[in-house]
Amino acid sequence: MIYKQKSRSFTILPEQPHQRIDYFLSRQNLDLSRSRIQKLLQTQHITVNGLPISKASYVLRPQDVVIITLPEPVESNILPENIPLDIVYEDESIIVVNKPAGMVVHPAVGNYTGTMVNALLYHCRFLSGIGGVTRPGIVHRLDKNTSGLLVVAKTDMAHLSLSEQIKARTVKRIYKALVYGIPTPTEGEIKSQIGRHITDRKKMSTKTKKGRLAITHFNVEEYFSDYALLKICLKTGRTHQIRVHLSSINHPVVGDSVYGYRHPPPYTKNYPQVHQAITQLKRQALHAQVLGLVHPEQKKYLEFSAPLPDKVAHLVDLLRKIKELIKR
């Protein structure tokens, strides 16, 4: 159970400054994130002077009586499944997992089983409930065909702490991506708005009417004749951010079937072994390699790393060998 009390009441004092209702409630020791409060507003679980308020921007005034009613916890109908997990770190508060490509993080339409959450529910006795019944413990996500490190919260306190770190952009997240071509300059920052694609609602785009600021820093760690291995640091965490940003500068991630080239460049067939390795990837060559965070309870910085998956590492090794042959 997440909540100990079903409802709480607050009266705004004369000396309190005018402030947004979501900001006010987020500072009342309720163990609720601001996003969770906004969802409670939308579902009419919060009233002011007896009237439901749905807008997070509502400004409170002296003598206003705010009542927040916390819904009863709902039992999850997600089934635990005995799916192996590559656990990098675990204690009573958090668990860090190296997610394989092909695994969806949490259940959603079309993927109700076989997800990482199904596996976590089998492995862990408790997971944080703040994310809701379909996303227990989930603080951040990786795309289905992206591999790498994810931290999952076992307790609500850990969930709130990790969420705040992500919001404050203090979580260290370093990715490796193999891309087509060699970016010029070899180091830079991609900064744009990212939102839903205007015509294809399943895709994200930098050309959007309603977007959110996204910032991606990259540098070429290693280059080959027609490819480059990039080190990428995220400053924000928008849906499909890295893939969209790299595609926007005409250096899409190798193997990306959504934001990559519809027809691979002709040079991909110059070396049959490389072409075959790319064909056999069945994923994008994007990997969350490093994750650094402050432990919610220990209050010390922890950093984890995970090596490139075998298929991606094999492709990079092939490109290195070809590069050496060209030099001779």
Quickly describe the structure.
This protein has 328 residues and is of the alpha+beta class. The chain contains seven helices and 16 strands.
CATH architecture of the largest domain: 2-Layer Sandwich
Radius of gyration in whole Å, from Cα?
23 Å
Give the proportion of residues in helices: 10-25%
Percentage of β-strand residues: 25-35%
CATH topology of the largest domain: Pseudouridine synthase
* Count of alpha and pi helical runs: 7
Count of distinct structural domains: 3
CATH class of the largest domain: Alpha Beta
What string gives the helices and strands in order?
Answer: EEHHEEEEEEHEHEEEEEHHEEH
Tell me the span between the first and last alpha carbons.
66 Å
Give a description of the structure.
The chain contains 7 helices and 16 strands. It folds into 3 domains: 7-69, Structural Genomics Hypothetical 15.5 Kd Protein In mrcA-pckA Intergenic Region, Chain A, CATH 3.10.290; 87-167, Pseudouridine synthase (2-Layer Sandwich); 172-327, Pseudouridine synthase (2-Layer Sandwich), CATH 3.30.2350.10. Strand 15 and strand 16 (301-305) form a beta hairpin. It has helices at residues 21-26, 34-42, 116-123, 156-167, 241-248, 272-281, 310-327, and strands at 7-11, 19-20, 46-48, 51-52, 59-60, 65-69, 87-90, 94-99, 147-153, 172-180, 187-196, 204-205, 211-223, 227-234, 286-294, 301-305. It is an alpha+beta fold and 328 residues long. It is elongated, with a radius of gyration of 23 Å. It is 22% helix and 28% strand. Strands 7, 8, 9, 10, 11, 12, 13, 14, 15 and 16 form a 10-stranded mixed beta sheet that branches.
